[in-house]
Amino acid sequence: MTEALNQLLKATSRSFYLTLRVLPARVRPQIGLAYLLARTTDTIADTELVPLDQRLDALQKLRERILGQNTTPLNFGELAKQQGSPAERVLLEKTDASLALLESLSPADLKLVRDVLVTITGGQELDLRRFANASTEKIVALETAAELDDYTYRVAGCVGEFWTKICLAHLFPDARMDEKQFIADGIRFGKGLQLVNILRDLAADLRFGRCYLPEEKLAAAGLSPAELLEPFNEPRLRRLYNSYLEQAEEWALVMA
Out of 159, 169, 225, 232, which residue is the most buried by the measure of CB atoms under 10 Å away? Predict the structure, then answer.
């Protein structure tokens, strides 16, 4: 598996391919393959030139293959043609080759890889449906803090959970520790990193009609999602923005 996986990663994910080389050998295949397939699902979700229904259908078919519920070969040729990046075209063209590598995982590792990918694809589908009709003129926002927490878990918290469980199983199988707390810390770390992304990309997301800051929190600050586009409202946003920065720091530093 290792050589085939290395070739796929080298062709499609050069930076992660280099990063993967510094990980302990016992966890490289599982983490590398999970990344490769997650990158594939992300490419499908982000191909905006392809109609929404077609992307949702492709994600569903890919998830069924990941779960072993379907063995029908996937043909993402049309999606591949829409990619501006050569690496992403190859990624979609080689989807069946990536899926074939799942067969080499142990049952325990296969379950962990499947769990994280199902969570990720579920989040991608939810996002696609939530913002289906979003635009600069019609900004769609998450409604509650619970929705934001769920989003950060589906996008990155579950990845922290996956990495933690894989490392526990293969690198520290006999370690004496509070395993439940260690996994919870991994989840918070991932969520913290995603919260940083949300705050960094706030302006860009708003221009596409997406707002990940919950409406209930904005309303408490006397703001609506649309008002975030006006620079003079920045002082009213600043306290809420800073509170999320503090939350991100608290979560991300939990592993320090």
Answer: 159
Per-residue pLDDT of 214-250, as tens digits, reads 999 999 999 999 999 999 999 999 999 999 999 999 9
CA gap 78, 98 in Å, rounded: 18
Nearest to 200 by CA among 143, 170, 156, 244: 244
Contact 102, 33 (CB under 8 A): yes
CA dist., res. 27 & res. 186, Å (int): 16
- pLDDT tens sequence across 59-91: 999 999 999 999 999 989 889 999 988 889 989
Whole-model pTM? 0.92
Neighbour tally for 171: CB within 10 Å: 12
Tokens of 100: 């074939």
How far are the Cα atoms of 2, 11, 96 from residue 20, in angstroms, in the given order? 12, 14, 22
Tokens 């439940």, residue? 180
Cα separation of 209 and 19, whole Å?
Answer: 34
Q: What is the DSSP string of 14-58?
A: HHHHHHHTTS-TTTHHHHHHHHHHHHHHHHHHH-TTS-HHHHHHH
**Count of residues for the chain?**
256
